[in-house]
Amino acid sequence: MELKPKSYIVLFALFFAVLIGIQGYQLYNTYQLKQRDIFATVKNKLSKLHDNDKLFDDDLMSKDIARDYYIKLVKNEITAEKLKGLYSANAHKTSQKLTQYVDSLFQPLGMNVILKKEILGIYFKSLEKQIAAGPITVYTTSGTFRQPVELSSSEWITEKTETQKIENSIQSKEVLYTFFVHRKTSFEVTNLNWILFKELTSLLLSTLFILVAFLWLFYRTIQNLRKQQKQISVLHDVVDNISHELKTPIATLKIAAKTLRKSTDENIITVIERQVNRLEQTLNPLSENLQTTDQRLISSTELQAIFEDFQLTNPATTFQIGPCPENKLCLNPSDATTLFQNLMNNAVKYGATWLNIHFEEQKNKLSIYIQDNGDGMEESELPYIFDKFYRIQKNNVHDTKGLGIGLFLVKKIVDRYQGQLTVTSKLGVGTTFKIQLPLATIPS
Question: Which residues contact 82 (CB under 8 A, 6 or more apart)?
Fold first, then answer.
């Protein structure tokens, strides 16, 4: 079953959507892989951060000091807010040094990394008895966190036994203080999107190129299909028109042949010759290489005769013509007849009631203007009107009979004489053909 053009467009849309999905999935996977690689690099470099004793033990609260504060918190000697303030003060104190250290690790790699460690909660004796709620910042680099990534999480268990006197007694007892501290370390690569964009630029550009190329190829394919359909339609019309044109002379020749069987008549022979000439005239335009051997220049008298014959056969058309050039037109009589008759007949065929032809000399060229007030043409039609067999259609219907080769022959003649042919037209106003030819030169 043959698919219609709309079906092709629907199928293309589906395939294009699938292609976009595949390319998008590939980009997403690559994005995830690159992101994981960056995070792995950061985690690897930060894994030995706590081995730097000089960075932490001298400036932050050591484990023993922190445990003593927890005991004070249990004894109500300090408040939770006081403890948080102590951590905050120490974090601020070490922030600059920690920032410099982290920058020294990652700036050579083009990364901007920020880091922080937090206490999520401090529990006494069991995980059910919380004495301080987080988050409590232990240390941090300078910078604002928006999408932190967890580097590590752990639970620190610390114990200390203290000897306490029993109230109203000289005896003492051993008290065991056990604390559970939940901690989490996070980092963020603040320029992650820019790094990934640079990493994926080549893949992104290649993806866009593939999609654009796919669209362009589809567009060109549709254009070519439409052009071919139009050419096929034109060829069908040409075949139909030629068939119509050949019916009459063939029928006449058949009758003449039957008459000749009975008797020889000079009038019948004349009819046969006339019909053969008619067949020849019908088929001659179909030959692209048909050229006359007459290389002489057309005279102004012969050129005037072409215009007078046209005016005689088209009395309803107002015909204006400027002075014919004297031995300045480089066309031979046959080419001049073909050129002017095709242009003038086309004007009348497409509704012209007024026709104006005039000549202008410009340097070494002669410009010929053929202007009419016919139906005119849409601008979109102009690039195709000189194609062989091309005929303008309205609503997919040809309004006039013809083979669609008149303007094709005109263009070939102008090109053979190394001239230029241009056309301007406006729908409902008319058309002007401008032909520029060398002055009085004969093509080889």
Answer: none
pLDDT grade for 442, boundaries at 50, 70 and 90: very low
Q: In DSSP terms, which residues pair with 365 in a beta bridge?
A: 362, 438
> Residue 375 in contact with residue 346, Cβ under 8 Å?
no
Q: What is d(CA 47, CA 215) in angstroms, rounded to the nearest whole number?
A: 49
- Calculate helix-pair angle for 333-349, 406-416, nearest 10 degrees: 140
Q: How many residues appear in the chain?
A: 444
Residue 291 sits at φ, ψ, to 5 deg, of -130, 150
Token digits for 217?
């190829």
Among candidates 115, 61, 63, which has minimal Cα distance to 89? Answer: 61
Q: Please, what's the b/e burial string for 323-337 (b: 16 or more CB within 10 A of its CB; e: otherwise)?
A: ebbeeebbbbbebbb
Q: Of 137, 143, 142, which Cα lies nearest the Cα of 120?
A: 137
Q: Is the pLDDT of residue 328 over 80?
A: no
| The 3-state secondary structure of the chain, one letter per residue | CCCCHHHHHHHHHHHHHHHHHHHHHHHHHHHHHHHHHHHHHHHHHHCCHHHCHHHHCCCCCCHHHHHHHHHHHHCCCCCHHHHHHHHHHHHHHHHHHHHHHHHHHHHHHCCCEEEEEEEEEEEECCCCCEEEEEEEEEEECCCCCCCCEEEEEEEEEEEEEEEEECCCCCCEEEEEEEEEEEEEEEEEECCHHHHHHHHHHHHHHHHHHHHHHHHHHHHHHHHHHHHHHHHHHHHHHHHHHHHHHHHHHHHHHHHHHHHHHHCCCHHHHHHHHHHHHHHHHHHHHHCCCCCCCCCCCCCHHHHHHHHHHHHHHCCCCEEEECCCCCCCECCCHHHHHHHHHHHHHHHHHCCCCEEEEEEEEECCEEEEEEEECCCCCCHHHHHHCCCCCCCCCECCECCCCCCCCHHHHHHHHHHHCCCEEEEEEECCCEEEEEEEEEECCCCC
Q: How large is the angle between the packed helices 80-106 and 63-74, nearest 10 degrees? A: 160
Say how far apart CA 357 and CA 324 lie, in whole Å: 10
What is the structure's pLDDT at 188? 94
Instruction: State how far the Cα of 284 lies from the Cα of 288, in Å rounded to an integer.
Output: 9
pTM: 0.51
CA distance 91 to 137: 7
Percent of the chain with pLDDT over 90: 17
Is 378 within 8 Å of 356 (Cβ atoms)? no
